[in-house]
Amino acid sequence: MNIAIVGAGLGGLALARVLHVNGIDAVVYEREPSHGARSQGGMLDLHSGTGQRAMRAAGLIDGFHAIARRAGQDLRLLEPDGTLLLQEDTPDDAPLDRPEVDRADLRNLLLDSLPEQAVRWGHAFEAADNGLLHFADGSSATYDLLVGADGANSRVRGLLTDARPVHTGQNVVELGIADIDRTHPDLAATVGRGNYWVLGNGQSLSAQRNGDGCVRIYLSFHHTAEDWFATSGIPFDDPAGARERLIELFHGWDSQVTALIAAGDDTILPRPITTLPVGLTWRSTPGVTLLGDAAHLMPPVGQGANMALLDGALLGLALAAHPDDCPAAVEEYEREMFERTGAAARQSAFVQEVLASPDAGRRMLAFFQPA
């Protein structure tokens, strides 16, 4: 099999690694010029039955444990007036059920486990036809199986379905506080070692401790239009003005919440949230398939990376089990993936609905502590 993987994200790299472990070569084509070309985002919580299962299949579970943060499982849940609804502090001997891991560290672990020639940087996929890949620089490559691991705005997806991501009504602004223990020790104590959530009526603030000492802050605005960033009055080209406007939008919230916004650095990023239809499927087609966000883009509530990693691992195992029947391997993988990720997408949509509700804090408390 001549296997071409488009996209060097977590799912595509997990597939390449599982294939490599099973003696099958594959090439990953990535549009970025190098592995350090851009920031890889914040922390992920890898679940024992999905993301960690994939790391075991890849033979990398020990490496994962070395970079995982048990304390990242800590959680503080508050209402906008500062009322503490839930505080969960992780004991030092607690199992690693959902530990946090820096996305960049996890990606590097996967990259370092592959032969150097397995990833071709600077190859932006444009199209595919008759077993030939075409790249933006005019080069091409042959393939027997093309795997689209190219994320939310996948170009490979169009070979299988007309489905496209749609706006969810949620817009997010991301900020960061570098080296928070030194620069803002009071706010570091507020956030704690893991996740800090403040949920209100159609808005929320989540702060997340990262392994490098940074805290990433995500301000969510639900029930907002796709063009909301253009009409919100947030001057993204003026960081100080943007922070001031964001504090206005959280008027009446506890002062510790707005203090986190005020302490943010000058990198302030707008992030519209889009998803693919829940339960998206397509007719199995020899020679092409999808994984991760390219196949089942969900709200960012903890399922996406876990599903992508497991997609990659299970597709790799299916191909290893059917080395002479690639279409059968793809069909087996897709059948399981559709059922598994459809259920995950439905749960993610429910959590998204809870977060957008008027009594989000109390409903999320009930989600974490069911009667």
Automatic annotation (TrEMBL):
What cofactor is needed? FAD
Keyword annotations for this protein, in alphabetical order, are:
Cytoplasm, FAD, Flavoprotein, Monooxygenase, NADP, Nucleotide-binding, Oxidoreductase
Q: Which residues form the FAD-binding domain?
A: 2-203, 287-324
Residues bound to NADPH are R38
Q: Which Pfam families match?
A: FAD_binding_3 (PF01494)
Q: Does the keyword Ligase apply?
A: no
Q: Which reactions appear under catalytic activity for this entry? A: a tetracycline + NADPH + O2 + H(+) = an 11a-hydroxytetracycline + NADP(+) + H2O
Locations listed in the record: Cytoplasm
Functional note: An FAD-requiring monooxygenase active on some tetracycline antibiotic derivatives, which leads to their inactivation. Hydroxylates carbon 11a of tetracycline and some analogs.
Q: Family membership, please give it.
A: Belongs to the aromatic-ring hydroxylase family. TetX subfamily.
What the record says about its domains? Consists of an N-terminal FAD-binding domain with a Rossman fold and a C-terminal substrate-binding domain.
Q: What is this protein called?
A: Flavin-dependent monooxygenase
Organism the protein comes from: Kitasatospora aburaviensis
Q: What is the lineage of its organism?
A: Bacteria, Bacillati, Actinomycetota, Actinomycetes, Kitasatosporales
